[in-house]
Amino acid sequence: MKLILSRKGFDSTFGGVASPILPDGSLCPLPIPSNEPPRFKDVMWRGEPLSSIVSAITRQQIGPLDGMHLDPDLQEQSRPRAPGWRPLFGQVGSAQAHLENRGIGIGDIFLFFGWFRRTVRVRGRLVFERTAPDLHVIFGWLQVGRILRPTIERSSVPHWAAAHPHVRRARSMSPNNTLYVASRDLQLPSVAGPIPGAGVFARLSPVLTLTAEAQSRSLWRLPQWFYPTPGKPPLSYHSDARRWRLDSAGCYLQTVGRGQEFVLDCDSFPEARGWLRDIFTNVADHDVRTERTAESPVRK
């Protein structure tokens, strides 16, 4: 099995601000703005349009009629769905070539992370907390259950995936345009089900926080076993030993500024399975199981 730490959502270039950690501690990952549908007003976040959040934290720079690149698309209840819908993630170009070169396939797990910051309400308006740190936080996951090639095998793409941007614009994308379909259930040793094969973590937790305390968001604090040693391929894009620092309690990693998909081979780092177990046991035990994707899909 391989683990992919996948950078997604608002950043300093696309969106210009962090995704919010709402006052109740819940994570609200924001898809990057785009000139394509859906619009922010048409995607729901816990019963309200996502536009009410994004308009507030961007000070109206991004509004209800602005579109988004909804990818990864992890929550069934966020918008009307065709029967049979499954969570999806698309990748293309050099980032997809990197995944292919690393042999990503069925059963591998994406952990999606992004830039987050705490918010508060001031006179009823949602704003970023003035002294809140910038954090890289794991916000969602997808275990690969099926792999599709929309550009070269369009007939193999199910009808319920037609609205995804990597399907809708497939003809204009390079031949390696790829769609990862979530497995029905999460298949991990020692993790009791049922946990869906993809979803969004409900709230901030230490086990989901990558950024080291009181450091810039790109400096991560990781378990000690992450530290690369001879004979073990390091987290991809992070082979430079100067990026790593080991101590008695763990290790620090100065992450690269570019790159979307960071791959770790769990055969070389078997401790990764225990780390995943901790994430899905300690965090997902309540948040994921109680917000499980419904058995009956929402119909258009």
What topology does this entry show?
Layout: E1 2-7, E2 19-21, E3 33-39, E4 44-45, E5 48-49, H1 51-57, E6 67-68, E7 88-91, H2 93-101, E8 109-122, E9 125-128, E10 135-148, H3 165-168, E11 178-182, E12 198-200, E13 219-222, E14 244-247, E15 250-254, E16 261-265, H4 271-290
Parallel strand pairs: 1-8, 2-8
Antiparallel strand pairs: 1-16, 3-6, 4-5, 7-11, 8-9, 8-10, 10-11, 10-12, 13-15, 14-15
Protein traits:
single chain; 300 residues; alpha+beta; nine-stranded mixed β-sheet; three-stranded antiparallel β-sheet; 13% helix
Number of domains: 1
Rounded to an integer, what's the Rg over CA atoms? 19 Å
Mean pLDDT: 92
| Sheet of most strands | 9 strands, mixed
- Helix-strand category: alpha+beta
Please report which band the strand proportion falls in: under 5%, 5-15%, 15-25%, 25-35%, 35-45% or over 45%: 25-35%
What is the helix tally?
4
Number of strands: 16
- N-to-C terminal Cα separation, in Å? 36 Å
Unreliable residue stretches:
289-300
Q: How would you sum up the global shape?
A: globular
Write the element-wise H/E pattern from the N-terminal end onward: EEEEEHEEHEEEHEEEEEEH
Q: Percentage of helical residues?
A: 10-25%
Description of the molecule:
The protein has 300 residues and is of the alpha+beta class. It has one domain (2-290). 13% of the residues lie in helices and 28% in strands. The protein has four helices and 16 strands. The chain starts with a strand and ends in a 10-residue tail after the last helix. Residues 289-300 have low confidence and may be disordered.
